[in-house]
Structure formats: C-alpha cells, structure tokens
C-alpha cells in the first residue's frame, strides 16, 4: 500500500511541476488574484487523478489483494477466537451441571 501511495504522490508531483511550468511560461492561464498557487495545485490534482487511475491499475489491484488477504485473515482469527470462547463456555456449563447433579 505504501508503494502505491508513493507512486501516486510521484505522479502528482510530476504533474505539479509540469503545470507550474505551463502557468509560469504563460501557456496555461493564471489563477485570479492571489489564487495562483491554489490554481496550480488543483489543476495538478485534476490531471494526476486520471493518469494515476490508468497507469497504476496493476499496483492498485495488488494493494487491493493484500488488503483482502489481511481482512480475511482477521476474520478467520476472530472466528477462531469466538469458537474457543464458545468451547470454553460450553465446558464450564457442562462442568457446572455435572457438579449440580453430584450434589
């Protein structure tokens, strides 16, 4: 997941540099008043999102598979803990009934 995040950040930074160069060279419009920095960041975000979506598809799928495996493992551990608790509870009840009948 960290790898995907770093790759996505790299694409954003690359787009930011390109947009900054285009705005300051006059090829792309400047923001209104003092909003030029915000304009450059927003334009870089808009450009980097579809690029990341297409270019990082395989890495995103790998990260998703890792997350699914972790969730499945956590579910299995939780179910195992529940079963152990149920078994211990059932054994305690059985023992309590046996002691009640012996008295």
TrEMBL record:
InterPro entries for this protein: DUF4229 (IPR025323)
Pfam families: DUF4229
Compositionally biased region (Low complexity): 93-103
Native source species: Streptomyces atrovirens
Disordered: region residues: 79-103
Parts forming coiled coils: none
Residue ranges of the TM segments: 7-25, 37-56
UniProtKB keywords: Membrane, Transmembrane, Transmembrane helix
Highest classification ranks of the organism: Bacteria, Bacillati, Actinomycetota, Actinomycetes, Kitasatosporales
UniProt name for this protein: DUF4229 domain-containing protein
